[in-house]
Amino acid sequence: MSKRDEGTPRPIVISQGEPSGVGPEVAVKAFSALGGHIRGRALRLVGGAREFERAAAVAGIELKPLKQAIVDTGYASRGEPGRPSADNAPGVIAAIEQGVRACEEGRAAALVTAPIQKALLTESGFGFPGHTEYLAHLTGSKNAVMMLASSEIVPPLRVVPFTIHIPLREVFPRLEAEAIVETGEIVLEALARDFGCETPRLALAGLNPHAGEAGTMGREDADILAPAVSLLRARGHDVRGPLPADTMFHDEARKNYDAALCMYHDQALIPIKTLAFWSGVNVTLGLPIVRTSPDHGTGLDIAGRGIANEKSMIAAIMMAAEIADRRGL
Questions:
Q1: What is the pLDDT of residue 146?
Q2: Residue 283 · residue 149 · CB < 8 Å
Q3: 196 and 117 co-located in one domain
Q4: Structurally, how many domains does the chain consist of?
Q5: Cβ contact 308:26 at 8 Å
Q6: Given Cys at both, which of 85, 284, 286, 317 links 291, Cβ 3.0 to 4.6 Å?
Q7: For the segment 249-302, what is each residue's pLDDT rounded down to a tens digit?
Q8: Are residues 110 and 12 in the same domain?
Q9: Mean pLDDT, to the nearest integer, of 22-34?
């Protein structure tokens, strides 16, 4: 990707993800469905050229326009569809790194990442639990925050897990009021800057059943979460909670906030994957670049069959372009 011409909208780059999964397939399907452009921005596919071409052949997509959009990393997959290999890790990582560099150097407006196979990357010595942590490392970000968002359901739903890829038993020691406040402010800033919320509203999910039931079901809500809410309010933010998590996500409740800050991974991901499985988008907040991703995994069980659903990838591309527009990139 060369430096853009002055006045030309920067392209959106899409990294391949795990080549033995559905990443290349949903990428080429989304590219084709959108005609290679989104909101006046060209789409570019970063990864192994052979992987994208193979996915296009399986999906019955014309190769000629696709080839012009591929930025080949030079890595060819050694695995087969549905049977990934740790040997593919360098190619997966290279696609992410090249996409990040393109954004940092002004050659791209946003990065959309296809799903990766975290266990195999760990086996290869990757050293990061997922995309979010690796992107923070690459960009030098102090605190990258994962948001899952869907604007296609009404009211829209945006959820943020305070703790992400850690065992449930490790959640309790990680809960600190100041850290929750820091995450909350990153979310509130993103709501205003990237999602057009003029007066952003944040809801904080309680950790324990019934948000602790006045301390009878655990003290964390009263001793840690409530003080965090008080600190955020004292700084002028519109924040509610801690709220019982079991009543936060129905239609009427979602009208009262723009994003929900949850305390652990599944508390956030279960509602959005239930209500908006195909329209959910993973957005990384707190980065100097725009990054989104489909809200699904590598789909090894259906890889190579041409049946992967590209709707979440399309939603991720659309949201990346919308955020890039708001940031004037």
A1: 95
A2: yes
A3: no
A4: 2
A5: yes
A6: 284
A7: 999 999 999 999 999 999 999 999 999 988 999 999 999 999 999 988 999 999
A8: yes
A9: 96
Confidence band for 127, pLDDT divided at 50, 70 and 90: confident
Residue 54 DSSP SS3 = helix
As given in the structure block, the two tokens for residue 110 are 């946003």
Tokens coding 143: 């605190």
In 3D, which of 84, 144, 135 has the Cα closest to residue 297? 84
% of the chain exceeding 70 in pLDDT: 98
The pTM of this model reads 0.92
Write down which residue in 275, 294, 314 finishes a domain: 275
**How many CA atoms are closer than 13 Å to the CA of 172, on its beta-carbon side?**
5
Confidence of residue 119 (pLDDT cuts 50, 70, 90): confident
Q: CA-CA distance, 238 to 229, in Å (whole number)?
A: 9
| Whether residue 220 sits in one domain with residue 326 | no
CA triplet 137, 143, 149: central angle to 5 degrees? 105
Q: How far apart are CA 96 and CA 106, in angstroms?
A: 16
Please give the C-alpha separations between residue 319 and each of 110, 281, 290, 304, in angstroms, as whole numbers: 10, 8, 10, 27
Structure tokens at 128: 């990061």
Domain span at residue 224? 153-275
User: 137 and 211: one domain?
Assistant: no
Distance, in Å, from the CA atom of 177 to the CA atom of 223, rounded to the nearest integer, reads 9
In a domain, 266, yes or no: yes
Q: What is the DSSP string of 184-234?
A: HHHHHHHHHHHS--SS-EEEEE-SSGGGGTTTTT-SHIIIIIHHHHHHHHH
CATH of the domain at 240: 3.40.718.10
Q: For the chain, what is the mean pLDDT?
A: 93
